[in-house]
Amino acid sequence: MQPIDQAFRPLASRRAGALTGRVRVPGDKSISHRAFLFGGLAAGTTRISGLLEGEDVLATGRAMAAMGARMKKDGDVWIVDGVGNGALLEPDGVIDFGNAGTGVRLTMGLVGSYDFAATFVGDASLSRRPMGRVLDPLRLMGVQVVARSGDRLPLSIHGPRVAAPISYRVPMASAQVKSAVLLAGLNAPGVTTVIEPVATRDHTEKMLLGFGAKLDVTVDAEGARHIALEGQGPLSAAGDLTVPGDPSSAAFPLVAALITPGSDVVIENVLMNPTRTGLIETLLEMGASIEIADRRNEGGEDVADLHVRHSQLKGVAVPPERAPSMIDEYPVLAIAAAFADGTTLMQGLDELRVKESDRLSAVAKGLEANGISHVEGKDSLSVTGRPDGKGLGGGRVDTHLDHRIAMSFLVLGMASEAPVTIDDVRMIATSFPEFVAMMAGLGAALEPGSRN
Ligand SMILES: O=C(O)C1=C[C@@H](OP(=O)(O)O)[C@@H](O)[C@H](O)C1
Ligand SMILES: C=C(OP(=O)(O)O)C(=O)O
User: Fold this and answer.
1) What is the overall mean pLDDT for the chain?
2) Residues with Cβ within 6 A of ligand 1?
3) What is the pTM of this model?
4) Which ligand has the minimum distance to the alpha carbon of residue 102?
5) Which of 77, 308, 315, 319 has most Cβ atoms within 10 angstroms of its Cβ?
6) Which string of DSSP letters, residue by residue, matches 2-30?
7) What EC number(s) would the UniProt record show (predicted)?
8) 390 among annotated binding-site residues
9) Pick the catalytic residue: 328, 402, 423, 424?
């Protein structure tokens, strides 16, 4: 049967020998969203280099422009003129965030403490994802919400005349929820505190400090982080801001090189913030040859060049407490595990069920279609590998509007015995528009696939 959406663009990936060369992945997606958000909010001009121009981040840029920020490009640099803290304008129309969970959740937080209405929509994937995790703390601050049942998009919010600062303990490991509450606190009088029992990526805290916010982080006896933000203070433009390479994008050429015999690849300028390096740690435990070269600090973040060579991997148990530092990397770790000697056990994966797709189920179905031995649990996945790749591949993978499922299974096809086809390549542009060209430049064979 023909797919209903005639625009689906299948892509096939087949084994074509070693991957070699030097590459630079695009800017970090989390930092790029925040660069547009904080640059658009802070008074003055912020010049952003290395910004990821993926669809998710551009949606955040458009949202900030709809609320009064001005942005333009000068060569490779984005120049953002912000409105000043507390001075966002009511958007005229509906704000469309497409596929972007980070974009919509952080922006809902940011505007939640404004006495105006804002309406948010997204694509079919985003409209299935839970928004209650952000709306619940916003309601405590006095925000009115009209949402589809189950707190899903499309939804409208209207902030109170004066938002109440709150102290909020984040019930799940989520940097998006932490950030949404802090951003709402920027326009509330007094101190808003987020208590984070499990540490997640810290870009919001670091960048808010860089923009001059008064923010204080302490750790209690149980190890929970308390992030206290003083609301309604001035935010001033950060001047020049450089976005380092995205470790979640680097994960794809990294795993592709590890599993494809003869490969030797350097990935330059990768963010090495410890809240983001769980995949590298895990792959090193699996026996990966990854040389972390030229560690340096750029704009307040550690970066390094990763020199990766094909390696014989072995299965490991990934500790569940590592999940927040590699949450977006489990799909591609499952592909690395398919080539490891023995079984790789991944636990603590409940959050994977509420990403762009139910990633636990999407990965398991993709592994199934390609002859990879695995067990899917409620919040776990174990994968048993075939180091020679024999008998692997030959399947067609449903990507469910999920860029990371698409890229992970294309990486599988680079080393499996039979080719792998994904149903649709388009979502890759949300986070890594250069992926297909970059991988082809390293020697991968990617070509249009058949529609059925
Ligand atoms: O704050 C961020 O920039 C992100 C946080 C994570 O989501 P959760 O907060 O839902 O874990 C991650 O999966 C997402 O890609 C980016
Ligand atoms: C989960 C992701 O993004 P988001 O939540 O921003 O859609 C991701 O990029 O893997």
Assistant:
1) 97
2) 30, 102, 174-176, 179, 201, 327-328, 351
3) 0.98
4) 2
5) 308
6) --S-TT---EEEE--S--EEEEEPPBPHH
7) 2.5.1.19
8) no
9) 328
